[in-house]
Write the structure tokens for this entry.
Amino acid sequence: MIFNKAPEAYLINDLIKQTKYLVNGELKEWTGKMTNVYSTISSTENYQPTLLGSVPELTKDQALEALNAASNAYNNGQGIWPTMKVGDRISCMEKFANQMKTKRATVVKYLMWEIGKNLADSEKEFDRTVDYIYDTIDDYKQLDRNSAKFEKNSGVHAHIRRGPIGVVLCLGPYNYPLNETFALLIPALIMGNTAVFKPAKLGVLLLSPLMEAFQNSFPNGVVNVLYGRGRVLATPIMETGKIDVLALIGHSSSANALQNSHPKSNRLRSVLGLEAKNPGIILPDADLNLAVDECIAGTLSFNGQRCTALKILYVHESISEDFNKRFCEKVDSLKFGNPWEDGVKLTPLPEPNKPAYIKALIEDAQSKGAKILNSKGGKVTDNYIYPAVISNVNKTMNLYAEEQFGPVIPIITFTDVQQVLDDMAESNYGQQVSIFGEKVNTLAPLIDVLVNLVCRVNLNSSCQRGPDVFPFTGRKDSAFSTLSVRDALRSFSIRTFVASKENSANNSILKDLLESKKSNFISTEYLL
Ligand code: G3H
């Protein structure tokens, strides 16, 4: 890659030394060990990673301090936050969102440097997250309006709402360090839960501009932010048994380990977005131009580092030569460069060991008979490996089974689509699939089976999470619980209600409760 210095607006002139962590409403100074944060993007002509700043390497003591703060703020459902009026919680969230919006430029700059996401996608991640907050507020208002009533059945009056569950441990992924983490944290908080939140291993500094907003928007202890290693911080937190909800986007091995650390698994609710290996199926009657474009976006947006990425392509034998040729030409035409450069589609990989991992997958596949189809495929630079399109992939190869989460595209040629369905049924993954074809007679029975193998069938379209109002979930090792603006509010809450047998005394008490407006729970107020 030709060295390109970042334009002035995107230069990191001062290192961010994030010496504070947020606990019980206080931004506490940490004087212990710090961890340097590097970008794999070079700032000099001779390649070397760029030092961006540093964050605290907190220990078990601070982890438990944060947990206690969250636990005290929840106070077994008696805290200010879980008993607050819905409208007041919403005001806190609006205060946070308004401050967050002012930090767009800084957060976007750090997204580019820390995880190598291109400018357009970094801006999209920020904007989509702000929209998610406002959409969540709107949906919560609607949920509240729908509950602002009494029901009567068999002589019992009931006022049914959704209430918080307790203390949430929130752990997000590095590929969407803002969006996916907030898509857990925001609904968890707005429903009245309190949280301990640890940023992902990469994409950490971009939260620094938001720390004061977290501090001044919510009551003390409602949000606590920790920095450090998951194993050091999250495991002791789980071992206390004080976590009520584990909200994690990451790998099932981490989720299982954390769930198993909880002494009372029956008390633990899990909201998990996990690994996936979404297939793209290209049928003989597919519109190949469209299929190629969608498969490029599906396999290589953010270098394939998306849980929803297409991670294996099944191409029908009758069109495979044509598809593979067109697909490879498109792959080789994609521009690699730093995230702020015009027209870049491929950007440095934020994990320093990723190029070597991808290369090892390719070499393992080659040693078992696979071939690299495109001319640039597999070329390694200091911080990248050019996407390789790999044909002749079979089940003995690591590339077949592992979620590569990076720029390499395995292709399997098939003659009978039942083979694809069998592979999907056998696989540990079950998030989404893309199917390309036009004949309804072929598509209809396939769709009827695919919807039972995954949770979203994308017709002539690449896989994706959005729009965020649609349910995002998966089967098997791919997810647990459903996320969407609406579903997340349900995932982080439980139905709870006040019931009273109908008689004149109870009726008059209920009337008084409503008219006096002394209860924050019992309310038929229409939230505007
Ligand atoms: O990493 C998984 C993300 O949820 C994918 O979201 O499909 O919008 O890129 P996306």
About this structure: The first helix runs from residue 60 to 74. The radius of gyration is 25 Å. The pocket of glyceraldehyde-3-phosphate is lined by residues 175-176, 180, 306-308, 464-466 (CB under 6 Å). The chain has a mean pLDDT of 97.
